[in-house]
Amino acid sequence: MSEYQLQIKQIVDSPRCRIYRQLIQSLIKDPNIRSGGSSGLFYYTVLCCYANFRTSYKRIDGIIHLLNSGAACLDASGVCTDKNGNATMKKWWEVTDEDIKKMTDACCWCEAGFDNFRGGGFSSHFTTKAEMPCTMIRLNLVKGLGPVLQIAEGWTVNLPEEVSDTLRERTNPTWPCTWFAPRCDGKEGSPFKTAYEVMQNWGANHGAISYGHIGADLITMCSMLRIPVCMHNVSEDDIFRPACWNAFGMDKESADFRAYATYGPQFKK
76 Cβ partners below 8 Å, 6+ apart? Predict the structure, then answer.
């Protein structure tokens, strides 16, 4: 465990269990630390003191726990591979019978907790077991402003099983579980300084996660629809916006808001 010295911070609204500046060893020894379960997608931001995970060659400035109350696409288990043997989420028409068996074998169906599902039923459970590129987005509807988009590109992380299992027991172990490391820049004042700042600036405790890094495409699409992008970690070299955006200032995200106010939306409310 010495290679995985982690600090845990809970940043959901409910203060039932706040864990600050405790190493993962303390969590393992104390089974009473528990959040109690909720239908939120995010529970913990795991800030890594030493994040040199053997399964990843990338710098990790924190890990976000993505979990959903029982429903998730089984493709996110990470058991399917492309022709080069890399973990992937395939287009539905490329999924084979062998892929289907792998995904269903990686999933178990747990009795749903009555605190969230009073009618009963089952919850799909799996843990993402591979490193895959992902994009997390959220469309926030702001009164008086309209829709604004947030984008966070990153990678799923295959945590050691003992670490993952311990943290899951602090939320709801029946739910599907993915550990996500957003691409961070380490800059003071940036919403992407660490994973903690990502969650602190996120609109709410839910989001939509897609396979691959598609942030640049989303930003271009938003410029066509006139939806401002208020937060993203996409390289400026990869972004295309209309040339007329240059007339609205040097800061491109601020220019988004001014351009959209001038040109008007291209979507129906």
Answer: 89, 126, 128, 156, 176, 178, 209
pLDDT tens per residue across span 199-224: 889 998 888 999 999 999 999 999 99
Q: With bands split at pLDDT 50, 70 and 90, how would you rate the model's confidence at 75? A: very high
**Where is average pLDDT lowest: 28-42, 72-86, 235-249, 252-266?**
28-42
Sign of CA dihedral 222, 204, 269, 245: negative
Say if strands 146-156 and 177-182 run parallel, antiparallel, or are unpaired: antiparallel
CATH superfamily of 6-263: L-fucose/L-arabinose isomerase, C-terminal (3.20.14.10)
SS3 (DSSP) at 199? helix
- Concatenate the DSSP letters of all residues of 123-181 into one string: EEE-B--S--EEEEEEEEEETTTEEEEEEEEEEE----HHHHHHHHTTS-TTS-EEEEE
Residue boundaries of the structural domains of the chain: 6-263
